[in-house]
Structures are given as C-alpha cells and as structure tokens.
Give the backbone structure.
Amino acid sequence: MQPTAKRTILVIDDEVHIVLGLRDALEFEGFRVVSAHRGLEGVELAKKEKPDAILLDLMLPDANGYQVCAQIRAIDRRVPILMITARSQEVDKLRGFDAGADDYVTKPFSVNEVLARLRAMVRRAEWQPQTPEATIIGQASVSFGAQTCRRDGREEQLSFYEVEVLRLLLEKQGQVVARDDILQRVWGLENVATNRTVDNVIVKLRKKVEPVPDKPAHILTVYGVGYKLV
C-alpha cells in the first residue's frame, strides 16, 4: 500500500520566528510546510505547490495580504486561506473576507487555535456534501464549484465558509437549521467559532444572494433557533 501523501500548507509571513514556530507545529501534526517571506513569492508558490491550505499574514514587505489573497483567489478559488492579522477591528476582518479569506486569527495567537482552525478548514474543503454543484436561489445563480454568485449581471466570489453554509441550508431546504448545528457541521469546532460567526456569514450571503438583503426572501431567520432556505 502506498503511504498517504501529506497535506501541504503554505505559510506566507515575513517574520522568521513566526514561520519557524508554525513550521515546527505543523510538521509535528503531520503536515508538509512550504513558506514564503514576501507576497509575490507566496503567489508563485501557491501556483507551483497547489497547497491544501494557506496561512497568510496581512502585513508583508512587498504587498499587503488583501492584495496577495485576491491574486491567489484569481488562480485558485477553492484553497482555504487563513489570514493572520494584528488588526482586530471588524472592518479589517471584513475586508479580508471580501478579498477571499476564509477565516482569520489575530496576533498574538495561540498555535493550538491556528491548528484547530486549519484542521477544520482542510476537513471542510475535503468534505463532499450531497448537493448539486450549482443552483438557482431566487434571482441568483450560485456555482459551488467555482464559488461564485451571479445576480443582476454581477458576479461575486463566495468564501469557503459562505459556500459550506449555503450548501448545508440547501441540503436542508425548507427546514430550520439551528446555529449550533451549522457550527458543528461547517466549523466542527468548540470555543473558536461562535453563533456570531454564523450570523456574520449569513449577513454576507444575503448581500450576494438577496435583492434586498435587509428584507430577505430566501435565507430566512428563525428567531432564537437558526436559519432556513426557501
């Protein structure tokens, strides 16, 4: 029997001690690690190595993480990207999500938290749910494979977690899906993702899918419980 290939993690960070610390922890967990200290170098490695996930620092010497994230997304729509940032304000995190990041962790961070988030991202990326690769929701055309949503002639990218939440709601179409069930199914984590995390993903999905996001017709809130897709 052939040995199982190690999953490859690309770390893009200009702080050598952070890269070394993450490399030690990731290799101990059985991952193969490749690294870059500059943004453009990281983009080239993403093309060459086709990693299973990417850890991306926001502050890089030649380009900011938002730019690097967008360039990687242009060549690979599906690779999970965990952004590492010293900025904790919500607007900075939302900008990261808009650039294509799937999750974030704020410096100073716990290596265990990074590993937990990373394992969840890789696991969810490999999960193959029983849903079609494309669907129509109202006036929006969603492609799960391409991770895009097209509405009114405009195409927007969906993040990894937006895709997985929408897949789950489609799988349970017409049924109420509790926030806790969404957390367990999509994130599979305890004490990291929260109900607020789910709510933020729903808000972003509505902006892309619903004609009037503040008055949703398809992704509905069931107060005190969760959400359902109609």
Q: What stands out?
A: The mean pLDDT is 84.
